[in-house]
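Good day; I would like, with your permission, to put a structural problem before you. What I wish to show you is a protein chain and, alongside it, a tokenised description of its three-dimensional fold. Please examine both parts with care and let me know of anything in them that strikes you as inconsistent. Thank you for your consideration; the sequence and its tokens are set out here:

***
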Amino acid sequence: MTFRQTLKTTIGLALCLGLAACGSGSGSSDGNASPGGKSYHRPETAGTNYDKSSIWDVFGPNKSDQTVQVNRYIWAATLDVLSFLPVQSVDPFTGVIVTGYGNPPGGGQAYRATVHIKDPALEARSLNVALQTRNGPVSATTARAVEDAILARARQLRIGDSKL
């Protein structure tokens, strides 16, 4: 046997084993099989990886993990407080706002920010602000002051909504 024939045989065997692993498991003894041999899922397993239909669904991203709820008041307050910065990208699914460099009103120093809203609660732990100048990161007190301004504005927006 030549090397090329051995390689073809090995690849063919690997493909056959891979396809066999994707079988339907009709011989299960958990009571989910019908007389025709088809396997049905119990309602309590809905939403798990058992309901994937192909190999690409199993190894692809989980659709339920892609939706992260962010606090809408913190989101709006962030865009409001940092309105002097040009927005480069926003991702409401992960709660990330990235801005470009901009000068605050009355200031000479250019800043840029990356904001991560990681929780739907209107609390300080839900917000993470990273500020940077052209010379490097800003002090922790400056970043904390911006976080406090965003949270104060978010509370104002929430109070304004409750009066409607």
User: Anything to note?
Assistant: Residues 72-162 form a domain with the Alpha-D-Glucose-1,6-Bisphosphate; Chain A, domain 4 fold (CATH 3.30.530). The beta strands are 87-91, 96-99, 111-117, 127-133, 136-137. The chain has a mean pLDDT of 77. Helices lie at 3-21, 55-59, 72-81, 140-162.
